[in-house]
């Protein structure tokens, strides 16, 4: 079996857990981080630190400017990040932090990267339970892209389609954190916040922060995230 895998690594909690899981399952990981000119670039530095800590075989940071399109609070400073949403309301509507077609863009780049590296798998940290309701994190989307990957690549046409692996898809945030801790993940070096300050401190109020904080509470684990109001 080909043990090469491309992991989409953002520097956040979920993608870091997935990268650790791929390593634990014996994969030779090529990590791909997309610098899409998002609101905060601290997560790029976090991804570099995570890649080094996990000892991936290769780490590529790919620059692309989605701020040219805008349309999201993560790529357009004129659009506000949603703060203090009740946990029970998160995921019921698509929030302003949704970046149009982001996962399709990222997975397409991962597909190209995987073919050039002879990888048989692409791993990503999408989750359909404790999430913000993004349409490109749903199981049916992952299934559809896997079908596209089979049709659109040389590997797929030759009968060796790349597998899209999303092991966190049906896990709660607490379950994800427990998995990561069992794999020795250092969550203090990850960044998940949508609105980090100039010092890289998380806001503690956006949807990503609220889901992360609640996940650590539900997991009965210490949250090592550096927050602005600690």
Structure characterization notes:
By secondary structure, the chain is an alpha/beta fold. It has a single domain, classed as HUPs (Rossmann fold, 3-Layer(aba) Sandwich). Helices cover 36% and strands 11% of the residues. The chain has helices at residues 13-24, 42-54, 102-117, 139-152, 154-157, 173-182, 207-219, and strands at 4-8, 28-35, 58-63, 121-123, 163-165. The protein is globular, with a radius of gyration of 17 Å.
CATH topology: Rossmann fold
Order of helices and strands: EHEHEHEHHEHH
CATH class annotation: Alpha Beta
Computed structural class: alpha/beta
Proportion of residues in extended strands = 5-15%
> How much is the radius of gyration in Å?
17 Å
Shape: globular
Name of the CATH homologous superfamily: HUPs
Number of domains: 1
Name the poorly predicted regions. none
Question: Strand order of the main beta sheet, please?
Answer: 3-2-1-4-5
Number of strands: 5
Report helical residue fraction: 25-40%
Q: CA-to-CA gap between the ends?
A: 48 Å
For the residues shown, what is the average pLDDT? Answer: 92
The CATH architecture classification is: 3-Layer(aba) Sandwich
Number of helices: 7
């Amino acid at each position: 079996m080909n043990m090469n895998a491309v992991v989409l690594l953002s520097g956040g909690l979920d993608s870091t857990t997935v990268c650790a899981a791929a390593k634990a399952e014996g994969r030779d990981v090529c990590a791909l981080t997309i610098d899409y000119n998002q609101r905060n670039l601290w997560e790029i530095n976090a991804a570099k630190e995570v890649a080094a800590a996990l000892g991936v075989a290769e780490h590529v940071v790919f620059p692309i400017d989605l701020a040219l399109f805008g349309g999201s609070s993560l790529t357009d400073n004129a659009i506000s990040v949603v703060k203090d949403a009740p946990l029970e309301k998160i995921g019921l509507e698509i929030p302003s932090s949704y970046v149009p077609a982001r996962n399709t863009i990222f997975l397409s780049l991962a597909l190209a990267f995987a073919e050039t590296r002879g990888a048989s798998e692409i791993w990503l940290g999408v989750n359909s339970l404790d999430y913000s309701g993004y349409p490109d994190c749903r199981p049916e989307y992952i299934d559809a892209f896997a079908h596209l990957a089979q049709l659109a690549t040389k590997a797929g046409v030759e009968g060796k389609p790349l597998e899209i692996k999303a092991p966190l898809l049906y896990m709660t945030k607490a379950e994800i954190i427990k998995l990561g801790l069992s794999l020795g993940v250092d969550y203090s070096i990850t960044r998940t916040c949508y609105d980090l300050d100039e010092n890289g401190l998380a806001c503690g109020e956006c949807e990503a922060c609220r889901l992360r904080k609640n996940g650590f509470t539900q997991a009965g684990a210490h949250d090592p995230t550096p927050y602005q109001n600690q």
